[in-house]
Amino acid sequence: MVHAVYPGSFDPLHNGHLDIIRRAGKIYDRLTVAVLHNPLKGANLFDVDERVAIVRDVVKHIKGVEVDAFGGLLADYMRRVKATVIVKGLRAISDFEVELQMAHLNRQLNPSAETTFIMTATRWSYVSSTRVKEIAKYGADVSKLVPPAALRKLRERFDGLQAG
Ligand code: PNS
To answer: What is the pLDDT of residues 54-77, one digit of tens each?
Structure first.
């Protein structure tokens, strides 16, 4: 039984994340989407409970996928939940540079956890939560970039966001 963890800020979850969740969910017996609880005030648009609620809503029909929040080091969280695989999505070389460093450091911190990479589908390779928030802030349509649960939350936060 392989338990994998897909960690991230998910602020908010977008279609690229969902693509990785669906594909990783087919590979591993159990997949936990682990939402980072960043205690730094203002670090995220949505607080951890809101981000978890969005992910839960989106993945509720995907078998073998669960959602959790974590704080502190990912390496420690992996130990705590007895998971052995870290899943990361790669969009571009720029992601790779950051992820390579994190993979080596995480392996040093927890040699039982192996990092694996899934290449983001090309149709979502240009999508990031940062850009989604930026576009939504100015009221433009992001309905093709995020799942409905995330869109609803963005609409609550940004009055006048286009319906799509
Ligand atoms: O979606 P993000 O913001 O790119 O995700 C980054 C995340 C949450 C995977 C990364 O920041 C992380 O693992 N944070 C937990 C703290 C930690 O373990 N830091 C050391 C990594 S080597």
So the answer is: 999 999 999 999 999 999 999 999
